[in-house]
Design brief:
The chain has helices spanning 2-16, 102-110, 113-118, and strands spanning 24-31, 34-35, 39-45, 52-55, 61-63, 65-66, 69-70, 75-83, 87-88, 122-123, 139-143, 148-150, 153-155. By secondary structure, the chain is of the alpha+beta class.
Length: 156
């Protein structure tokens, strides 16, 4: 009888400990002292595993999520941060216009067939764009087994 009670208690304890333990990681990315707006932040586990990612907001703030939910597992990570480039209409008169809109239809009618068919786009080069060296995993981070953790990145 005593062993049966101990077995039931052990089973209950084991069942209540289930679920993935994630750390909700958030922080701020700055470049040259200013918030990095609309930058992609990717945490890749060293040695493989599930990646966490986010996009910064207007204040440079991010909050990681992964396939597991809000947050990532504790461990060592390589971090990639890169700017988002936006297409501009210097090469293609329809670039940046919503397909099906009156503006798009007008630009399509006025464009030569060669410019319509090429679908060439230039990307806007932001003078405050984050250098490519930060997109290659040069940055490192250690995520602790805690409920929440703030990890800021100050890039120069």
């Amino acid at each position: 009888m005593f062993l049966r009670i101990i077995g039931c208690l052990a089973l209950l304890l084991f069942a209540s400990c289930g679920g993935e333990r994630l750390t909700k990681v958030s922080g701020k990315v700055t470049y040259k002292g200013k918030p990095a707006v609309n930058a992609t932040v990717i945490f890749t586990p060293v040695g493989g595993g599930i990646t966490g990612a986010s996009t910064t907001d207007a204040n440079g703030l991010y909050s990681l999520s992964s396939q597991l939910g809000a947050g990532v597992r504790a461990g060592a990570y390589e971090v990639s941060i890169k700017s988002q480039a936006k297409p501009v209409g210097e090469s293609n008169p329809m670039a940046g216009l919503e397909p099906g809109s009156p503006e798009y239809a007008e630009a399509y009618r006025n464009a030569s067939s060669s410019s319509r068919d090429k679908k060439t786009y230039k990307l806007a080069v932001d003078p405050n764009a984050i250098p490519e060296k930060y997109a290659g995993g040069e940055l490192k981070a250690s995520v602790d087994a805690v409920p929440t953790q703030t990890i800021d990145f100050t890039l120069e």
